[in-house]
Amino acid sequence: MLQEEAVSAFDTPLPHGEDRVPSRAKSVLVIACGALAREILAICAANQLDHVELTCLPAQLHNTPDKIPEAVKATIEENRDKYSEFLVAYADCGTGGLLDRVLEDTGARRIDGAHCYAFFAGIEAFDRLEQDQLGTFYLTDFLARHFQTMVVEPLGLDWNPELRDLYFGNYSRVLYMAQTDDPSLENAARFAAKRLGLPFEMTRTGYGLLGDFLNVPGNVSEPGGQSS
């Protein structure tokens, strides 16, 4: 059921049970948030990681982070006999350490960071961003692409526009962390900032720590750099 729900995060759904990174011999299962699907698939394709298979849980689980640990655990248990290693492409993601406690019992390991913004930017670089300016609302490629369904609709901003200032009145800027060089996503991120009534800034993070996490030799991230 979780895999079927996760299909909404992709543009090209596959029939139930089919692999997104086809291979005859799988040894590693990456369990990821649906918001990271494009990035992980791109890394796997670019680096010919044929031993890696990807399964995604719904990105909407971030609205109920307490459900993430059990969803990850259930996915591991369902696939225990099929893979030699499990990589969990979730940061702590608001679970308050519960995800780490679950993973201790399973032997799986997750990517470092409190959330995806930290591992895209790099842990230390993200800490500097946080210290540089409080009250930042972060966007990734996924959130720029799905701003309407992941932010506007869940918060009811279409039906109750006055809620915008209630939710975002204490924010000082929107910072778009771009994983790719896509003008349409930059435009979408700028529109999101305008929708929230906040100044827009942009930094190109590339794939951050994801490449190393997937055991890719070298650095697959794009060069960083900040612009407004």
| Chain oligomer state | single chain
Looking at the structure, what is the overall shape? globular
- How are strands sequenced across the largest beta sheet? 2-1-3-4
How far is the N terminus from the C terminus?
Answer: 41 Å
Largest beta sheet, briefly?
4 strands, parallel
Number of strands: 8
Element string (H = helix, E = strand): HEHEHEHEHHEHHHEHEHE
- The level of helicity is 25-40%
Structural class of the secondary elements? alpha/beta
How many structural domains?
A: 2
CATH hierarchy class name of the largest domain: Alpha Beta
Mean pLDDT: 86
Number of helices: 11
- By CATH, the architecture of the largest domain is named 3-Layer(aba) Sandwich
Hey, roughly how much beta strand do the residues contain? Answer: 15-25%
What integer value in Å does the Rg equal?
Answer: 18 Å
- CATH fold type of the largest domain: Rossmann fold
List the uncertain runs. 1-18, 21-25, 216-228
InterPro entries: DUF1638
Protein name: DUF1638 domain-containing protein
Organism: Roseibium polysiphoniae
Pfam family, one: DUF1638
Report on this structure.
There is one protein chain. The protein has 228 residues and is of the alpha/beta class. It contains eleven helices and eight strands. The strands form two sheets. Strands 2-1-3-4 form a four-stranded parallel sheet, with helices on both faces. The protein has a four-stranded mixed sheet with strand order 5-6-7-8. Helix 10 links the parallel strand 6 and strand 7. The longest helix is centred in the C-terminal third of the chain and has 14 residues, at 183-196. This is DUF1638 domain-containing protein. Residues 56-213 form the DUF1638 domain.
